[in-house]
């Protein structure tokens, strides 16, 4: 006969077992296949977890079940966080489930790899299909949620880098069951809208499940078929989605995507500054060359008085030759002499001289006028240019942080070859000059 | 500035035109008249490019579809 003290009452044992279980397994994770699902009107949830050899009864009470994102389905591989207990009324072991989710990571990862291999084989990721991203986008489209973190990052990045380029947001749901269809329809809207010449498809960071819509086959095909170049920026650096692989360009984050589609304003401003410097200089040089040409033409001009002198002396020579000739001929018969004398009187050079003098002075006046007009015109143009030059004065450039370096003969330094270590240079900044010394030439 | 110098170009075209004007002027093959108008045009283009890069106020819209599926845009407001 066993002593009474060794005999358990049923409820005594089940209570003891329950305490033992609850202390030994306060909260653990269990993975298994969901089966025998029952969802009574009470809102509680009852099911079994099983594997090849065993099964466990589980209960998830209403308060917990109602906040769960996962909708249980028999046959799903699930992972639960639970306390182990004993249901005293039946003496059954049971798991009190706090949280349930699809044993997703593994499953989703497998589906991801399958889709990736499949699309890769079909050539959707091939480099040859990648459209070039325009260097100067004229209009940037964004497919994303208008209330998410991504749109904020993108818009603020674009505002900083290229405020001149208009932006249109094509709103899409980027999380949950409707996300894939919503993204597809937003991409189609962007194509139909015919405004943007580059399209960002983007979403902020999240769990693998959150980003899952970007691993959707139809989304991938829509991006692949999109005639507008697509830049993807999904999640964080480490998240690579199918959308990233099929996009024409993948950016690691939404911000990076915005950077990739916006021209490098800093660099463009530098290039613009160089043109701003070259434009007035080239014009100045042009004017100098023209001024030299005018000088040269001026020297070619002969003053009318000088021309007159030359003509006078020619006439004088001719007349003296004529005189000596006449004298020698006078020895000939008087008739001839008379005749000659008459002809001579008729040929009086002063008439010719007067006419010629007149011509020359008219030409002289015209030349003078023309020269003066040309010089006045050049001078006026130069004054006008000087006022234009003020608009693009290099000083304005200097105020933006550029400096002009000059060597000790005050010439502008353009090449490292002009200088060696130890040479001194002047750096002209907007508010003054710095005397500097070259330490080293770096090729 | 005369009307012909009013610039209504996107940045890419304005910049390329400016670049070609500067190059043409540096070769110095033009006559005075053309050089002068080139120069004026160059100054206008330069100002335009600069304002596109630096001074413009970005226009951000959100696409909205009405009941007939027609497209409309509304200014985007961050909340």
Q: What are the key terms here?
A:
heterodimer, A: alpha/beta, five-stranded mixed β-barrel, 13 helices, B: 79 residues, two-stranded antiparallel sheet, elongated
Average pLDDT figure of chain B:
80
- What is the overall number of helices of chain A? 13
By secondary-structure content and strand pairing, the structural class of chain B works out as alpha+beta
The span between the termini of chain B is: 42 Å
Share in helix of chain A: 40-55%
Order of helices and strands of chain A: HEEEHEEHEHEHEHEHEHHHHHHEEE
Strand adjacency order, main sheet of chain B: 1-2
Describe this structure in words.
The complex is a heterodimer of chains A (443) and B (79). Chain A is 48% helix and 19% strand. Chain A contains 13 helices and 13 strands. In chain A, strands 1-2-3-5-4 form a 5-stranded mixed barrel. Chain A has a 5-stranded parallel beta sheet with strand order 7-6-8-9-10. A 3-stranded antiparallel beta sheet of chain A has the order 11-12-13. In chain A, strand 2 and strand 3 form a beta hairpin. In chain A, helix 10 (304-329) packs antiparallel against helix 12. Chain A is rod-shaped. Chain B is of the alpha+beta class and 79 residues long. Chain B has helices at 11-27, 32-55, and strands spanning 60-65, 71-75. Chain B has a two-stranded antiparallel ribbon with strand order 1-2. In chain B, helix 1 packs antiparallel against helix 2 (32-55). Chain B is elongated and about 60 Å long. The termini of chain B are far apart. Classes of the chains: A alpha/beta (443), B alpha+beta (79).
